[in-house]
Write a structure and sequence with these properties.
seven-stranded mixed beta sheet; alpha+beta; 17 helices; 13 strands; Cytochrome Bc1 Complex, Chain A, domain 1; globular
Length: 456
């Protein structure tokens, strides 16, 4: 068992946040354990991460990782789903599971006095899940109904799934994490069991405990319950850099009778390891990350075409997506998308001004410390460092880096990270009869019925 400590208190960097004292162990099976004692509140928060997730979904069966994650809390060991939930609720604890493109996450919070129960439930969920057929059938039906309900009521919920599929194509980032109606129907209990055996194990495991804990005692408990958890039978899936669009591509998802168009404009962005994160975050705040952003000003304030427009960078082990998204009345679809593209082109050509940079700096500097206040915040933040191999400075130097971003830094990230408006993937969900000709002005249009049971 390897151990690394960070117990000495340190002064927070100017404009920054100090990572609290913590201890890190690597167990014999490769599992990583980080313990952050914080005795001010009698609570313990835990973030459990399993590397791989949807990256390892079998071909044609997107959603296996998401179903597996959901089933981890639907019965384990001697407890069926009801007994497992009853054990949680009986002490006022919480446990939630989720799957992302690269990580399955289990997030738990308990009173300090119940931490042994928390660890026991987590260990049982990880090492002896039941994966009962009736629970799989119920969860799969729920996922299918969520997709169908979104198509009927709020297609904006599916924009990212269509967008990533269209942008990344065969790359793992293009797979819908939740799955599609078609892929979910193809998933059997055998697929879940095979995924669990090959993709979940101690060598994929990261556990972060923060709160009212005794670190040495907790380490012994974790080593006893999870230190011998077998390794995953298959290697972690390799992840290549995604290909960037060579031109502009347009996908029209036909939703007959829709009065609105929901649109997504995407490109390959940057990874978690992009060295100029602070500058990029400030520029994106100016461009589409706040109510006063350039995008929102142009599409909402000046033109009144929408109630809101924004942009985001999603960052992974490799470059994930940059995306602009909004919605508009069908008759103004082409106008709104062209306005968003023109705003991006203006950013690329003109950059941002000093007052814009200072306003964004004040906003982000004020928000950042608020995101790292609770034990649960720290469990999630330190989990991110472990999962992506990031240094402690990723947290501690972010504030100082924000304070020192210059206009030259802003110009660099605009040039490097923000896409060329002529090299994008555009997805619009709306009534094809009303918006087809408008989209044709933007490039060659491909069409897909919203009713189709897949995202590509």
């Amino acid at each position: 068992m390897r151990v690394r400590g960070d117990k000495a208190p340190r002064r927070a960097p100017v404009g920054g946040v100090r990572v609290p004292p913590h201890t890190r162990w690597v167990l014999d099976n490769g599992a990583v354990l980080v313990v952050v004692p914080q005795r001010d509140v009698p609570l313990v928060a835990c973030s459990v991460l399993l590397r791989g997730s949807a990256l390892a979904d079998p071909r044609g069966k997107s959603g296996v990782a998401a179903l597996t994650a959901g089933l981890l809390e639907k019965g384990a060991g001697a407890r069926d789903a009801f007994a497992f939930a009853d054990a949680l609720e009986g002490v006022g604890g919480s446990l939630a599971t989720a799957a992302g493109a690269e990580l399955i996450t289990l997030s738990a919070q308990f009173l300090a006095r119940d931490q042994e129960l928390m660890l026991g439930l987590l260990a049982s969920a990880l090492t002896e899940p039941r994966f009962e057929q009736r629970e799989l059938d119920t969860l799969r039906a729920r996922h299918v109904e969520l997709i169908k309900a979104a198509k009927d009521i709020d297609p904006a919920e599916l924009l990212a799934s269509y967008g990533r599929s269209f942008l990344f194509r065969a790359h793992p980032y293009g797979r819908p994490v939740l799955g599609s109606e078609r892929s979910l129907a193809a998933i059997s209990r055998r697929d879940i069991l095979r995924y669990y055996r090959t993709q979940i194990g101690g060598d994929r495991l990261v556990l972060i405990f923060a709160g009212d804990v005794d670190a040495p005692a907790l380490k012994q408990s974790v080593a006893r319950t999870l230190g011998r958890f077998r390794r995953a039978a298959a290697p972690l899936p390799a992840l290549a850099e995604p290909a960037r669009p060579r031109g502009r591509r347009v996908l029209l998802v036909d939703s007959p009778g829709s009065q609105q168009t929901y649109f997504w404009i995407g490109a390959v962005g940057v990874s978690k390891h992009y060295p100029h994160r602070a500058a990029l975050d400030l520029v994106n705040t100016v461009f589409g990350g706040s109510f006063t952003s350039l995008l929102n000003t142009e599409l909402r304030v000046k033109s009144g075409m929408t109630y809101g427009a924004g942009s985001t960078f999603v960052r992974g082990t490799v470059a994930a997506e940059f995306a602009i998204r909004s919605f508009v009345h069908a008759e103004r679809t082409g106008e709104a998308i062209e306005c968003a593209l023109a705003t991006l082109a203006r950013l690329k050509h003109e950059g941002i001004s000093a007052p814009m940079l200072e306003a964004a700096r004040a906003y982000v500097l004020g928000q950042y410390p608020l995101s790292l206040e609770t034990a649960a915040d720290w469990a999630a933040a330190l989990g991110e460092l472990e999962a992506y191999g990031l240094p402690r400075e990723y947290i501690e130097q972010y504030g100082p880096e924000l304070s020192h971003v210059t206009l030259a830094d802003a110009r660099r990230v605009i040039r490097e990270a923000f896409p060329d408006p002529a090299r994008l993937a555009i997805v619009a969900i709306g009534d094809a009869a009303r918006i087809r000709s408008q989209l044709a002005r933007l490039g060659t249009v491909q069409e897909l019925p919203l009713a189709r049971a897949a995202f590509r």
